[in-house]
């Protein structure tokens, strides 16, 4: 609680992610099983890797290592998206990055609402990958009109939630009581509804156009479709999932296992077929089923520069286009040999972002007489150290792989690449933060801090 009597936005986010996790475990029991497995694997990893444990103790809160790092929702209208932006702002989450999924045949584009800055991320890193349906990519205009009519009539936010958002904006925050109420009211938007808004005939038409369209349009709200804890050993969890009766997707998305982890690796268990009901013309409920909700895990590595990312994208393309007789894992390992795998090589080639700090020797030098030289010279002299900056965002090809494995292969289809960031930002009512620029600034600020404290003091002599 700050001097204003308001709860910090970090605390609201923490309370919200905890409440969301509890709700999702109750709704999707298989997710609880995944959480248990992740906690076990993380414990075993920490028991075997003393150095990693010490590092994590220094930089992270060990107690929350297996907590959720992200979730995902899919919205139907510009109005839903811009209101969601205001809701997340109360929790200290801002839109970062633009992801065009049309390139992968999925009719959505997305951003990630997330805390920005090391401080907020350390307090609670929870983020929500948020997609907006693109009916502009659907050809059947009669179907588009029917979908728009359903979406225009639904209200995904509880009136109490909207009131509290307005109050937070007016006051600059919420007090303890309002914050608790806010979490409770906002959670309703993410809840599962098993009674569809549409009849089975319309559901079928939407589903035939694309399963994702049916998922967004047919229900009362944008149910949370997965939550994702962090694992310290994604290969182990992937291997163990089947043993626990969890149906894992075929491959881990992203880069291969490496000495120096880059970007983001993800895998999931396949979405469950769940009972839902559709209203018939006669007003009675008719039983049906829908597949949407799953569980995912993630493991993060260093944030890459544009140059590093271009290399990653090129290598991944090569893997995907490669000789299928070799198997995906083998191709991945083989092709990624061309991505340097030591922190020094990644740094000197300008492929990744690092945070610079003074070593003990650097601190002594700073206190005594100061020191000049280039960053490279200061590193060589042992006065500076460089630690990789963790990638906090997402990857469009991986996201598409996650979407796809949960929609079924039939969903891989026909939409042409059509990035439209300007339209997305206009619907959002705000620009998205450029993630590369953000990491660059973190790196630049860390260098500036070091050089400033090492500079010979003018009045010492
Ligand atoms: C979102 C899939 C993307 C990720 O981790 O890349 C995602 C969705 O299925 O709605 O969450
Ligand atoms: Ni995800």
Q: Output the CATH class name of the domain at 9-300 and 393-419.
A: Alpha Beta
First-to-last CA distance: 46 Å
Spatial ordering of strands, largest sheet: 2-3-4-1-5-9-6
Low-confidence stretches: none
The CATH architecture of the domain at 9-300 and 393-419 can be given as: Roll
**Ligands bound to this protein structure:** 2-oxoadipic acid, nickel (II) ion
Count of distinct strands: 11
Proportion of residues in extended strands: 15-25%
Question: CATH homologous superfamily of the domain at 9-300 and 393-419?
Answer: Uncharacterised protein PF07063, DUF1338
Give average pLDDT, whole number: 92
CATH fold-level label of the domain at 9-300 and 393-419: 2,3-Dihydroxybiphenyl 1,2-Dioxygenase, domain 1
Shape: globular
The helix-strand sequence is HHHEHEEHEHHHHHEHEEEEHHHEHHEHHH
Estimated helix fraction = 40-55%
Structural classification: alpha+beta
Number of helices: 19
Radius of gyration: 24 Å
Main sheet specs? 7 strands, mixed
Can you describe this structure?
The protein has 19 helices and 11 strands. By secondary structure, the chain is α+β, with helices and mostly antiparallel strands. The chain has a domain of 319 residues: 2,3-Dihydroxybiphenyl 1,2-Dioxygenase, domain 1. The strands form 3 sheets. The protein has a 7-stranded mixed beta sheet with strand order 2-3-4-1-5-9-6, sandwiched between helices. Strands 7-8 form a two-stranded antiparallel ribbon. Helix 1 packs parallel to helix 8, helix 4 packs across helix 7 and helix 9 packs across helix 10. It is globular, with a radius of gyration of 24 Å. The mean pLDDT is 92. The structure holds 2-oxoadipic acid (OOG) and nickel (II) ion. 2-oxoadipic acid binds next to strand 1, strand 4 and helix 17.
